[in-house]
Design a protein that fits this description.
binds magnesium ion; binds adenosine monophosphate
Length: 422
């Protein structure tokens, strides 16, 4: 039989015994069950954005560490100013970083600044706008009374020393940086970044800097996978484009797998005559965990392990790539870093226009999220031409999850959506 003939025979056989489709939830479970955390590393606070905490963060001081003034004004005894206006003798000044550490007595006031320690004996701060300093005499007139405790944050009122304030497994956001800094975490323990290799396959592909010749297209998957993988905290190596040739695929896959924690290929996993990615993996002795998921788009997604490297064989269509990367590969690379929430968070939104589902597969349809004038979250499905319509997908901010077995969902339906990392 000619090579072409044997390929076609193979094609027919493959289609006759296609592996069973597994539900998305089961595929995610299989991915997580086969993903082990990477070692912990200690990094400088300045490098921690987006990394996953590997240690609980514990307060080493009370917050505030002393009774702290919340306003510029005068520390007073509330009792002394109950019948304001009253005049008090100014006995000192307490500034941030330079407190007045004596005892304030009846009839006295201490000029105080925001962030400064409140002297012993004072039990309230009257804001400067409600006072009048009487020139040169060292006397202040308090124009209005204040209640006990006004404008003072008591020592340890916010946080007590020894309290756990952030937990291992949380992703470090900009909002957390002040907390890490305030409790002295100059270095922070985080999960190591997974080393991800990306490899686009397909004899039609040329680089972004090339003008495609007849029958060719530019590779976009290596770039979009790299973008999503970096957002998920990994370091990415982009491999040279691989043609549809089992031997070429085998040598690139085995070399990349040897130096990577995760290899992500795109293309060559469907049922076409030239879809060789799975064959290459099998010939290399990879363990295939699944190769068909009841998912639209993204049915032919492959998950395998080759020695110590996890392999995701994503379909070639750029939209399928975005969906399958974020459902499966992202969960794996985040679990490797120790993330407590490796998967995209589900939210609920109202469908702004009707969408079509699929009878045998769960759909993840690109959408734009917005809120209406009542503050209700709406999901606007994108008008798109299918899994190759990456230009329409460029505006997507979320995916609408339509369960399998539903033909059509009407506008107004309550839907589960996941936000796309951006
Ligand atoms: P495949 O899964 O290899 O059958 O590819 C499905 C579709 O995706 C085909 O139209 C391919 O040309 C296209 N495709 C595959 N790989 C890429 C890539 N790296 N960048 C852009 N499009 C691709
Ligand atoms: Mg292909």
């Amino acid at each position: 039989m000619s090579i072409q003939g044997s390929r076609i025979a193979n094609f027919v056989i493959q289609n006759l015994k296609s592996p069973t489709m597994i539900p998305v939830s089961e595929a995610v479970k299989i991915v997580l069950a086969n993903t082990a955390p990477l070692p912990v590393e200690s990094i400088a606070l300045t490098d921690t954005m987006g990394r996953i905490l590997s240690e609980d963060i514990v307060a080493d001081t009370d917050l505030p560490p002393f009774d702290r003034a919340q306003m510029d004004g005068y520390a007073v005894r509330a009792e002394d100013v109950a019948n304001a206006p009253v005049r008090l003798r100014i006995v000192g000044e307490s500034a941030a970083g330079a407190g007045w550490h004596n005892e304030m007595k009846a009839g006295e006031a201490v000029r105080i600044m925001t962030g400064a320690p409140v002297p012993v004996g004072a039990d309230a701060v009257q804001q400067v706008e409600l006072t009048r300093e009487l020139g040169g005499a060292g006397t202040v007139e308090i124009l209005e009374s204040v209640e006990t405790g006004r404008s003072i944050v008591r020592k340890a009122e916010e946080i007590k020393a020894g309290e756990t304030v952030l937990r291992a497994g949380e992703e470090i956001s900009a909002a957390m940086i002040a907390t890490l800094a305030s409790f002295g975490y100059a270095r922070v323990k985080v999960g190591s970044r997974p080393r991800v290799a990306v490899m686009a396959t397909g004899s039609e592909l040329v680089g972004v800097d090339q003008k495609p010749a007849r029958d060719q297209i530019r590779d976009s998957n290596n770039y979009s996978i790299a973008a999503y993988a970096e957002l998920a905290g990994t370091t990415v190596e982009r491999l040279p484009l691989a043609g549809d040739d089992t031997e070429e695929l085998k040598s690139q896959i085995s070399e990349a797998a040897a130096r990577s924690d995760v290899l992500i290929t795109s293309g060559g996993v469907s049922m076409g005559v030239y879809d060789f990615t799975k064959a290459a993996l099998k010939e290399l002795g990879a363990k295939i965990f699944f190769e068909r998921v009841a998912l639209r788009p993204g049915k032919p997604t492959v998950f395998a392990r080759l020695e110590n490297c996890l392999v995701f064989g994503l379909p070639g269509n750029p939209v399928s790539v975005a969906v399958t990367f974020n459902l499966f590969a992202r969960a794996a690379v985040r679990a490797m870093q120790g993330a407590k929430q490796p998967c995209l968070l589900e939210e609920t939104a109202i469908l702004a226009r009707s969408v079509k589902g699929s009878l045998d597969r769960e759909s993840y349809l690109p959408a734009v999220l917005r809120t209406d004038e009542k503050g209700i979250l709406l999901a606007d499905p994108l008008k798109w031409g299918g899994s190759s319509d990456f230009v329409a997908f460029a505006r997507a901010t979320a995916l609408i999850n339509v369960p399998a077995g539903i033909k059509k969902l009407e506008a107004g339906s309550l839907m589960s959506v996941v936000r796309l990392p951006a």
